[in-house]
TrEMBL record:
Recorded GO MF terms: G protein-coupled receptor activity; olfactory receptor activity
Alphabetical list of SMART domains matching this protein: 7TM_GPCR_Srsx
Subcellular location, record wording: Cell membrane; Membrane
Native source species: Chrysochloris asiatica
Membrane topology: Multi-pass membrane protein
Name of the protein described by the UniProt record: Olfactory receptor
Transmembrane in keyword set: yes
PANTHER family documented for this protein: OLFACTORY RECEPTOR 51I2, OLFACTORY RECEPTOR 56B1-RELATED
Gene: LOC102816918
UniProt domain G-protein coupled receptors family 1 profile: residue ranges: 41-292
Length: 312
């Protein structure tokens, strides 16, 4: 018998928000608005960075990577979320679920890596500004983008195979309107130790290390800023980091909240787990374009010029 010749359902059943099944049609409206903001806002930023020469700089190249990751994440979840809430079509084929799981986890890890790269950008810009242009060349930025993509693919490539080796016979009902590795492995009627250990290893070695290095970069940034004599110059330097700090908080706070609820909130109502997971996946793509549009005047000016040209 082959390693993947095990008992598994032909499809899974996705779940909306437990207890609010009768309100799914009402929830579809806010979800559509969130997707519209996420897709529209990030696509506008991508186009602005592409067409505006003033935005052809490392900081905005990294921002365009972040916007691309957010668009990809939204597109990965949109089909099943839309079908679950708007059409009440909950079934998803097993292999399609594996693909969606891989894409969601991959783009999430990619976003974490991009936030780390953006913290390095801010570190060089503030702590070593004279070398900024020579350190962050187009070749280096492209290499960093390739490395983040390769890390996500290589690290998460085993996940679908780790799921396919498990016999799934407890149930075929997932806890969310999309597919996640922790959710799928809990349905197995076999030892899931390998899946749990590998999942924890991925979490610590990627997201955990990224957050640690982001924190260390800001320790160095604060130390450098405090050495500036002028209070006005200190505030100006720190102001360039505000958008990135808000983006980091928008990404990591919901992630930590989800991990805390899953680990320590086992007796919490089921809808709490679902809502926290939805916040983790939906909020960063919505907030990031709003944060950078509101806090970065160069982005605002570029968007205004872009729409002005369209009207003409």
């Amino acid at each position: 018998m082959g390693v993947f010749n095990v008992t598994r359902p032909a499809s899974f059943l996705l779940t909306g928000i437990p207890g609010l099944e009768n309100s799914h049609s009402w929830l579809a409206g806010p979800l559509c608005v969130m997707y519209a903001v996420a897709l529209g806002g990030n696509i506008v930023i991508l186009h602005a960075v592409r067409v505006e020469p003033s935005l052809h700089a490392p900081m905005y190249y990294f921002l365009s990577m972040l916007s691309f990751s957010d668009v990809a994440m939204s597109m990965a979840t949109l089909p099943t979320v839309f079908r679950t809430f708007c059409l009440d079509a909950r079934s998803i084929a097993f292999d399609v679920c594996l693909v969606q799981m891989f894409l969601i986890h991959s783009f999430s890890m990619m976003e974490s890596g991009i936030l780390l790269a953006m913290s390095f950008d801010r570190y060089v810009a503030i702590c070593n500004p004279l070398r900024y242009a020579t350190v962050l060349t187009n070749e280096i930025i492209a290499g960093m983008g390739f490395a983040m993509t390769a890390r996500s693919f290589i690290t998460l490539f085993p996940l679908p195979f780790l799921i396919k080796r498990l016999p799934i016979c407890k149930s075929n009902v997932l806890s969310h309107s999309y597919c996640l590795h922790p959710d799928m492995m809990k349905l197995a009627c076999a030892d899931i130790t390998i899946n749990s250990i590998y999942g924890l290893f991925v979490l610590i070695s990627t997201f955990g290390m990224d957050l640690l290095f982001i924190f260390l970069s800001y320790v160095l940034i604060l130390r450098s800023v405090m050495a500036i004599a002028s209070r006005e110059e200190r505030l100006k330097a720190l102001n360039t980091c505000v958008s990135h700090i808000l983006a980091v908080l928008a990404f990591y706070v919901p992630m930590i909240g989800v991990s805390t609820v899953h680990r320590f909130g086992k007796h919490a109502p089921r809808y709490v787990h679902v809502l926290m997971s939805n916040v983790y996946l939906f909020v960063p793509p919505v907030l990031n374009p709003l944060i950078y549009s509101a806090k970065t005047k160069e982005i605002r000016r570029a968007i205004i010029r872009m729409f002005h040209r369209i009207k003409m």
